[in-house]
Amino acid sequence: MMSLRKGRMVKLQISGRNLTDLDLFTKSDPYLVISRLNQYTNQLSQVRRTETINNELNPDWPVLYMSLQELCNNDMNLPLQLDVYDEDNKNQELIGSAVRSLAELESCMHSKEMIGLEYKGRSRGNLIIQLCYIDPPSFQERVSASAAPGTW
């Protein structure tokens, strides 16, 4: 029986470390937004948003699970925008941003390299890629790729 899987899936778990505190009386309430350039509108489109972790400058956001197609249009080198915001009631304030491809996120996970967040040229903390797992191609995808003209 054929699999009903619709493309390769990606699991990402990202943590923030030493995020800048933007709140006066409490700690920031950070959440992460992953966006990519929309090929039709040439503007950033949100792919995923984590939950908000209240009063925490070192959040460990839950695992995000999405298709490779949805995340980066199956292009591991497509730049992804990583924005961390502080949520306060109905307001949100940008803590910092970084741009990395999925291939770079995977490399950062293996090397344990932290990704610096910046806002207006100032360092605003770091992101750590705890998990970046990409499903291997299915048997059908491998057979199709090997049968493509110019690959044999």
Protein traits:
152 residues; elongated; four-stranded antiparallel β-sheet; alpha+beta
Secondary-structure topology with pairs:
Elements: E1 9-17, E2 30-37, E3 44-49, E4 64-67, H1 68-72, E5 79-88, E6 91-101, H2 102-111, E7 115-119, E8 122-134, H3 139-147
Overview of the structural elements:
The protein has 152 residues and is an alpha+beta fold. It contains 3 helices and 8 strands; from the N terminus they run ββββαββαββα. The strands form 2 sheets. The protein has a 4-stranded antiparallel beta sheet with strand order 4-1-8-7. The protein has a 4-stranded antiparallel beta sheet with strand order 3-2-5-6. The longest helix is centred in the last third of the chain and has 10 residues, at 102-111. The radius of gyration is 18 Å and the shape is elongated.
Fraction in beta strands: 35-45%
How are the strands of the biggest sheet laid out side by side?
4-1-8-7
Query: What structural class do the secondary elements suggest?
Result: alpha+beta
Coarse morphology: elongated
In short:
This protein is an alpha+beta fold and 152 residues long.
